[in-house]
């Protein structure tokens, strides 16, 4: 009979699992019907027990994963706090012992709205790179006039700008530092920057690539009787052949900083120039010539 067959099968399964179906070890003939109800009831109970254990194990796995994730999160959060503290300490050390880097924003009126926005973005990238540097500079924005277009763009485009660890002032660098400590970096200078002196203050002109004002920063530095220098691009790099025959030593301020920062950490001009001078400028290291 079909029902009796299912019951016998259940009995056998329970016997193998060492579960007593409620009858004698060797069921007598003719007990299939009573045994069937008893076995099926116990089988359902057993299935419920098994399912409950599975749910309990699954819940325990989820709790274990949650605890592990919480632990990792605590470690990462702690690590981020430590990293921020280290970055802050390095920046404050640079404030005390140098070197110092100023972005001269006195020429902001020469730029269009689009160029001003690009300059604000470059300042953000420059600050971010300096903050991550093993040997940072102390940064200063000079002639950063409240209400000016560059002032407004810096606050509009840069989240947390007011908390940047750097100096901002409406004064000129001429009012802040002795003339003999100032080195104005301009691609038009005849003098090559050979090393970085922590006792010097390096000035970058706050102009973007689109502002083509030939020798404007050089003329400004000469009018102020300042020492000038340029990056040693042509001393360590060569012109690379390109379709437009374009070669320029004029870099964005964040690119100049990448060169200075890498050199200050590695003391290698080739490594520094590779880090800051993109191939789009038409210059490459000799071993990278096409």
In short:
The chain has 290 residues and is α/β, with parallel strands linked by helices. The protein contains 9 helices and 8 strands.
Describe the fold and architecture.
The protein has 290 residues and is of the alpha/beta class. It has helices at 2-16, 32-97, 113-132, 149-157, 173-176, 216-223, 233-236, 253-266, 269-276; strands spanning 100-104, 138-142, 167-168, 182-185, 201-205, 227-229, 238-239, 283-284. The strands form two sheets. It has a six-stranded parallel beta sheet with strand order 3-2-1-5-4-6. A two-stranded antiparallel sheet has the order 7-8. The protein is elongated. 27% of the residues are buried.
Shape: elongated
The largest pleated sheet is described as: 6 strands, parallel
Low-confidence stretches: 19-33
Taking all Cα atoms into account, the compactness measure Rg is 37 Å
Strand order of the largest sheet: 3-2-1-5-4-6
Which structural class best describes the helix and strand composition? alpha/beta
Distance between the termini: 88 Å
Keywords:
alpha/beta, elongated
Write the layout of secondary structure elements.
Elements: H1 2-16, H2 32-97, E1 100-104, H3 113-132, E2 138-142, H4 149-157, E3 167-168, H5 173-176, E4 182-185, E5 201-205, H6 216-223, E6 227-229, H7 233-236, E7 238-239, H8 253-266, H9 269-276, E8 283-284
Parallel strand pairs: 1-2, 1-5, 2-3, 4-5, 4-6
Antiparallel strand pairs: 7-8
């Amino acid at each position: 009979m079909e029902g009796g067959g299912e019951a016998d099968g259940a009995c056998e399964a329970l016997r193998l699992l060492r579960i007593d179906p409620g009858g004698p070890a060797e069921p007598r003939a003719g007990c299939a019907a009573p045994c069937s109800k008893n076995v099926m009831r116990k089988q359902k109970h057993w299935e419920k027990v098994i399912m409950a254990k599975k749910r309990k194990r699954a819940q325990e796995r989820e709790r274990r994963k949650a605890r592990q994730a919480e632990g990792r999160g605590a470690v990462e959060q702690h690590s981020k706090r430590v990293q921020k503290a280290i970055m802050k300490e390095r920046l404050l050390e640079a404030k005390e012992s140098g070197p110092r880097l100023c972005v001269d924003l006195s020429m902001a009126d020469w730029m269009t709205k689009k160029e001003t926005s690009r300059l604000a973005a470059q300042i953000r990238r420059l600050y971010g790179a300096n903050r991550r540097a093993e040997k940072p500079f102390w940064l200063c924005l000079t002639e950063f006039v409240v209400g000016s277009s560059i002032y407004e763009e810096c606050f509009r485009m840069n989240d947390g700008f007011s908390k940047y660890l750097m100096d901002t002032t409406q004064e000129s660098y001429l009012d802040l530092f002795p003339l003999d400590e100032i080195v104005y970096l301009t691609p038009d200078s005849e003098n090559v920057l050979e090393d970085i002196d922590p006792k010097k203050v390096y000035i970058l002109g706050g102009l973007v690539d689109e502002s083509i004002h030939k020798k404007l920063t050089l003329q400004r530095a000469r009018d102020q009787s300042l020492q000038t220098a340029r990056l040693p691009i042509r001393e360590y790099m060569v012109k690379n052949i390109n379709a437009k025959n374009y070669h320029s030593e004029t870099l964005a301020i964040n690119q100049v900083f990448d060169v200075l920062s890498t050199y200050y950490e590695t003391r290698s001009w080739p490594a520094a120039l590779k880090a800051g001078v993109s191939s789009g400028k038409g210059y490459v290291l000799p071993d990278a010539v096409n």
